Amino acid sequence: MWIPWVVFSLVSLILLALMWFGWQVMNGRPIIPSSIDSFMPINGKAVTIGLRTAPKSLDIRNDNSDELQQALLENVYETLVNRDENNELKPGLAESWNVSSDGLKYTFNLRHGVTFSNGVVLDSKAVLQSLKQGITSRYPGYEALENIKLIDNTDAYTLKIALNSPDPLLLRRLAGRAGIVYDTGALINYSNNALGSGPFVVSSYKKDDSLVLRCNNKYWGTRAKLGGIILKYFKDDASLTNAMSSGSIQMAIPLDGADNNRLATLPQVSLVKGKSTRVQIVAFNNDIHSVFNENWIRIAASYAIDSKWAIDADANGGVQVGGPIDPLSPGYEDLTNVLPFDKVQARKHFSYFYPRYYRTMVLLVPKNKVDLGKKIADAVSSGARAKVDLQILDQSEIENRIRDHKYDMALSSINHTLDIDTFVRIDSPYLFQKHDSQEAYSNAISSPNVAGYLANIKKYARNLSENAPIKWLYAKNSVVAVKSNIEGYPKNMTDQLLPLRDLNEK
Fold first, then answer.
1. CA spacing 20 to 30 A to 161: which of 16, 115, 295, 478?
2. Coiled-coil ranges per the record (predicted)?
3. Radius of gyration in angstroms for the set of CA atoms belonging to the chain, rounded to a whole number
4. At a CB cut-off of 8 Å and minimum separation 6, what does 21 contact?
5. For residues 365 and 375, what is the distance between their CA atoms, to the nearest angstrom?
């Protein structure tokens, strides 16, 4: 009696195999899947890079941290549009594109001969599926693509996107997480692995310790110069320096610069400074329950605070800015002459109100910025002839207090080019409700072309600078410590973007 069951089982297995075969063919996937080269050792020369903040997962679809983007973007994953070292847009998986005069239609011409590391062809269908999956699954960064009306792949290497309304930042969005092209049909555990079209594949991942990248031997473009890269994570800058001194790492990216002086004294080690889009700020609570709701008081505090104090307090240093746009982002202009450090003007503006009106102003400062916090507190207290309560907290506590509007002033930072909407977005803790600035932003973001965007975003930036919802201090430097035999390393934006294909050991 068992024979019919055996026959039934065999027939079922054959039918399942035929169904799988048909699915593979219909979706353009190889009949015999190619290895994705993961969890294999490095073959050839390798360089170890010391970093400070380890990603909690490798699932870049759901983890929006800078540390994960730093490790995987342009190394394992690639985007439709790319960015160069100066944050300028350049071709990525799309070799060119065209935008209609009304800013509503985009046509992307994809590169030929591109494959994922498992051998699956990356064509317009793969791009379409990635975009649709990201939008419907609401992956971080894809909320900005909800303005898309239609996505269509007219042939294997042409993708068309139609918008409901113009978005002059669409190309820049597609140069970030929202532009990553995934093999959506691959079956992998994204929490500890990654599969993309980039010059590296994941060789191994040890949470909170290390991530090993191996050269992708099937890479469609110019192959990586090294056999592999080891990203090693350290708890503090001192441990990073010790590893550099012992020779266990050949390159390092310090976080706060606390050990930069010692790093600079190590033999055959150079400290190389670049630029970043991370802007340090003193946030003013313009909520109705804070005295900083008064325009005159925000302006007074801006005059009272010297940006150079903050730059001097940061071992990595930086470039002074006077508005919401950093020097690497589109629309930047020098606004440092708007509300510059001026004790006389600070006292004049503070004196508009009696000292008792200020009550006690609360200033939130992270634990590694206590001396800077004291300078700011003293300057505001002296100018207003009122008390400032300096509260020293973890950065996460500060962000929570800012979100809940339970502060008057707070030292914090704004990180990315696309954070430009921070002061108009309704869910932002920094929302600044002033008609002129909101109108300028609306005109910028609805512009059908880049020229219109730039003209209006500059008006927006200047209006914000003049009304001081924030005291913009400086754009932080990116700092790389590197051995003299290492070349081809990036210098700018290394806190969020670390392309390593050209890294080499002489």
1. 115
2. none
3. 26
4. 31
5. 11
**Both structure tokens of 494:** 């290394």
Q: Which of 9-13, 51-55, 253-257 has the highest mean pLDDT?
A: 51-55
Q: For 209-247, write each residue's pLDDT tens digit.
A: 999 999 999 999 999 999 999 999 999 999 999 999 999
Residue 486's φ and ψ, nearest 5 degrees, are -105, 135
Percent of the chain beyond pLDDT 70?
92
- Show the CA angle centred on residue 37, arms to residues 33 and 38, nearest 5°: 110
Rounded to whole angstroms, how far apart are CA atoms 245 and 265?
A: 10
The Cα 233–Cα 246 span in angstroms is: 16
Kindly tell me if the per-residue pLDDT of 2 is higher than 70. no
Kind plus residue range of the DSSP H or E element containing 375: helix 370-384
Q: Using 50, 70 and 90 to split pLDDT, how confident is the model at 24?
A: very low
Which residues in 203-240 are b (16+ Cβ under 10 Å) and which e? bbbeeeeebbbbbbebbbeeebbbbbbbbbbbeebeeb
Q: For residue range 322-341, what is the model confidence (pLDDT) as tens digits?
A: 999 999 999 999 999 999 99
3-class DSSP state for residue 472?
strand
For 319, the token pair is 């470039």
3 state SS of 332: coil
Instruction: Tell me if residue 450 falls in helix, strand or coil.
Output: helix
**Is the pLDDT assigned to residue 3 strictly greater than 60?**
no
- Longest CA–CA span in the chain (Å) reads 101
Q: What residues have CB less than 8 Å from 341, skipping those under 6 apart? A: 303, 304, 305, 306, 307, 308
Q: What are phi and psi of 118, to 5 degrees?
A: -95, 5
What is the separation of C-alpha 162 from the centre of its chain, rounded to a whole number of angstroms?
A: 26
Reference 468, options 333, 289, 346; nearest CA is 346
For 35-97, the DSSP string reads P--TT----S-EEEEEES---S-S-TTT---HHHHHHHBTTTB-BSEEE-TTS-EEESSEEEE
Eight-state DSSP code of residue 474: E
Q: Please report the pLDDT score of residue 25 as a whole number.
A: 43
| Amino acid identity at 38 | S
For the chain, what is the mean pLDDT?
92
pLDDT digits (tens, 9 = 90+) for 402-421: 999 999 999 999 988 888 99
